[in-house]
Amino acid sequence: xxxxxxxxxxxxxxxxxxxxxxxxxxxxxxxxxxxxxxxxxxxxxxxxxxxxxxxxxxxxxxxxxxxxxxxxxxxxxxxxxxxxxxxxxxxxxxxxxxxxxxxxxxxxxxxxxxxxxxxxxxx
Length: 123
What we know:
This protein is mainly α. The chain has helices at about 15-40, 50-55, 65-90, 100-120. The protein has one domain. The longest helix has 27 residues, at about 15-40.
């Protein structure tokens, strides 16, 4: 009935680009974790019972110097995510090929950080 020849899959396994996508996804998750940890360290410190008891001064402001590193890292993460999303979209030829969800999540997280931190720092 079908006159189209059956396509033969010549790829034996994951090629260099697919392996690079997998490794880069893990690296992007590391970037997300580092960004969130650095933002948590830059937050104002909470006053505890012992701080009040011993009259210890605490930092009640955001550490802007510490927030510059997550901003730079999120810009790098955004660029890498866009490149990986482009490469991933070009590799969707086989039936079992799929779009990497972690790259999309990383793209949105880095975009949120890239937009919100400059607004917070400079406005």
